[in-house]
Specification:
By secondary structure, the protein is mainly alpha-helical. The protein contains eight helices and no strands. α3 crosses α4 and α4 runs parallel beside α7.
């Protein structure tokens, strides 16, 4: 996935940059399934909301994008990952500041005291992500992807991210490394560990990293 349609996707991206809505829809259909599967590992039940945020940013900044189909997949993954991690941080921050059971929430009304408007929370803005350029062949697809996805979500996050970027989004090791901000060999090692775990748990061979 990803490598075979790189030329076709690149042409669609080029037309979409020129304002062709049908081409943008083609790009969306090509990239969204793998992107959403990747986001489910990062953001859980918020994956669809995060994906929608990512696509809005992609549509907004598409005119500045330069690259082919593989570059676009890497860029979309970087945008989505940044959005997902921001959402996770916001949730973690909310859990840390949640009141203890029985404690009065900030701004909650007290008997006999008139209640004014409470504070509002504003999300932190996110900076645009940089494009990534792959330089080696993409990894092959994993057989029985639906079954594999359930196993992947239980892997350590570094392994899950590496294998999803490689196998579902079709990124090569170099592009995945840039998306993750990690050395290429670390991504290769994480992919190898993930593939061994998948092979054992699915009781079948899985393609090499």
């Amino acid at each position: 996935m990803g490598a075979d349609d790189g030329g076709e996707l690149g042409e669609a991206v080029l037309r979409a940059r020129g304002g062709d809505e049908r081409a943008f829809a083609q790009v969306y259909r090509a990239v969204q399934p793998g992107l959403l599967a990747y986001l489910r590992t990062l953001a859980g039940d918020d994956a669809e909301d995060v994906a929608a945020e990512a696509w809005r940013e992609i549509a907004r900044d598409l005119g500045r994008f330069r690259g082919g189909g593989a570059d676009f997949r890497a860029w979309a993954a970087a945008v989505a990952r940044r959005r997902a991690l921001a959402r996770v941080r916001d949730h973690d921050r909310g859990r840390r500041t949640a009141p203890r059971r029985g404690a009065r929430e900030p701004g909650a009304a007290q008997p006999g005291i008139a209640q004014g408007p409470g504070p509002s929370d504003a999300p932190d803005p996110a900076a645009p992500a940089a494009s990534a350029a792959p330089d080696v062949p993409a990894a092959p697809d994993v057989p029985s992807a639906d079954a594999a996805l359930d196993v992947i979500t239980a892997l350590p996050r570094d392994e899950a991210e590496a294998v999803l970027l490689r196998l579902l989004l079709g990124l090569d090791a170099g592009a995945a490394a840039r998306v993750l901000g990690r050395p290429r060999r670390a991504v290769r090692a994480a992919t190898c560990r993930a593939l061994r775990n998948l092979s054992r748990r699915l009781e079948g061979p899985v393609g090499p990293p």
